Structure formats: structure tokens, C-alpha cells
Amino acid sequence: MARSPRYYMLMASLPPLPPVFTSDQTPISRLRLERRLALLEPDDRAELAAIEDLMRWDRLPLDITDQEILERAHSFIPQIRSATLREVATWRLEVRTVVAGLRRRALGRPPPSPREPWGYGRWVRYITHNWAATDFGLGGALPWVAEFSRLINQNDTLGFERELLGITWQYMSRAADRHFFTFEAVALYVLRWDIISRWTAYNGRLAQERFDRLVNAGLGEYAELFDTSSATR
Q1: Between 183-219 and 83-106, two packed helices, what is the crossing angle to 10 degrees?
Q2: What is the pLDDT of residues 94-110, one digit of tens each?
Q3: What is the pLDDT of residue 229?
Q4: pLDDT in tens, 157-178
Q5: Over 60: is that where the pLDDT of 222 sits?
Q6: What span, in angstroms and rounded, lies between the C-alpha atoms of 200 and 26?
Q7: Under 8 Å CB-to-CB from 91, ≥6 apart: which residues?
Q8: What percent of the chain is modeled with pLDDT above 90?
Q9: Contact of 179 with 11, CB cutoff 8 Å
Q10: Which of 15, 55, 107, 220 is the most buried (most CB within 10 A)?
């Protein structure tokens, strides 16, 4: 997409993104980032918001069905004007489809039926036809699938989250290297900011949980004295 003078200004105003696992906070707050994004053209800002919503399923309504999610993806992705961002959105949903298959299999469930709405993209049928293979037979195209399978089977939540965010960061960083001072550059900055935000929030929750376990283990029967929820009971 064409460069815009205001996008030069916008990109120049954004702090560099650190490597995803090296920071305990985002380089800019979401509030300040949103203020910078006010420089986007209205159509670009709306499209970026829609891309974020599609790729971050935690933002979707709790009562939305798989069928509705897939219908939204099939309707929206072809309308993304940038070829790069279409590829990024498609790749992200395809990764999510592989992960959904791995999690389903780890629960001991059978492969989805042909008519069951459950995944997006080119690997859906391939996964169901190679259900018993550790990597769904995708090791050549997606070398990380076997490791994802191992981490999910071992219930290694932290390891899996780190691997997932790591490959997503690498993919989007390679895409960002091809764009400067364009809408794509801004969008890929925001999407990578989302990854850092997700990791720091996730890592922070784990740290708090570990601290709480240590405190409770040390306090034993006196732990209730430090349970603030009991103050309102």
C-alpha cells in the first residue's frame, strides 16, 4: 500500500519493539498507542481493529460459536486490502487450527467429521486425514507441530505459550521487514505489540501464582489471615 506522510510521522513516534521475551512490560502503553493510532486513516483504523479482533479470539463474545467465527473469517479475510495482512491473518488462523487439532487429539477425541465447523485454511482436511501422525504429517511445512504436540500432551502451558508466541513473533517480524512507513508497517507493529502484551501479562500471572503458592506453603494454617477476600465475608 502507498506511503502516507502521516504514517512517516506515526512510525517515527513509536518506540522500537524489544524481542518478545526480553521485557517485563510493553514499550508503550495501550492508551498511548491508541493516541498514536489516531493518525491512521479512518478506513485503515477500522480494518486494523477488525484484524485484531479476528486474530485475538479472547476479544470475541463468549457466546459466539465456531461456525460464526469461521463465517466471520471467510467473509472478512478476502476483504483485507493488503496482501501482506491477508497472508498474516490467514497464517494466524491456520496455526490456531493446527493447535485446535492437537488439543482435541490430546483429549482423546476423534478427528472432526467432514461437516463439522472447526478449522480454517489449507490444513483442515490434511489434519483429519493424518490424525494419528504426531505432527499430522505437516512436519515438512510446519516443523514446529511435533514440539507443540509434545508440550500440549505434557500439559506444559508455559512452554507451549512461549513456543506459540515465538513462532508468531518470527513470522510477523519477517513480514514487517518488508514494509516501512505504510499501513502494513503500522499494523504489524500493533500485532507484535499485542504479542509482547500477551506474554508480559501471562508471565506476570504465572509469577503471581508462584508467589501465592510460596506464601501459602510458608504460612500454612495462618494463610487465611492474608486472604483479603475474607474481609468482605
Answers
A1: 30
A2: 999 999 999 999 999 99
A3: 41
A4: 889 999 999 999 999 999 999 9
A5: no
A6: 8
A7: 171
A8: 69
A9: no
A10: 55
Q: 179: how many CB neighbours lie within 10 A of its CB? A: 20
Q: DSSP readout, 74-139?
A: HHHGGG-S-HHHHHHHHHHHHHHHHHHHHHHHHTTPPPPPTT-----STTHHHHHHTTTSTTTT-T
* Half-sphere exposure (Cβ direction) of 36: Cα atoms closer than 13 Å: 20
What are the backbone dihedrals phi and psi of residue 60, each rounded to the nearest 5 degrees, phi first?
-80, 155
Q: Is the dihedral of CA 98, 100, 101, 107 positive or negative?
A: positive
Any alpha helices (H) in the chain, and if so which ranges?
Answer: 5-13, 30-37, 42-55, 66-76, 83-106, 124-129, 145-153, 157-176, 183-219
Q: Work out how many domains the chain is built from and give that number.
A: 1
First to last CA, the chain: 58
Domain ranges, residue 190: 5-232
Please tell me the pTM assigned to this model.
0.84
For residue 8 the three cell numbers come to: 512517516
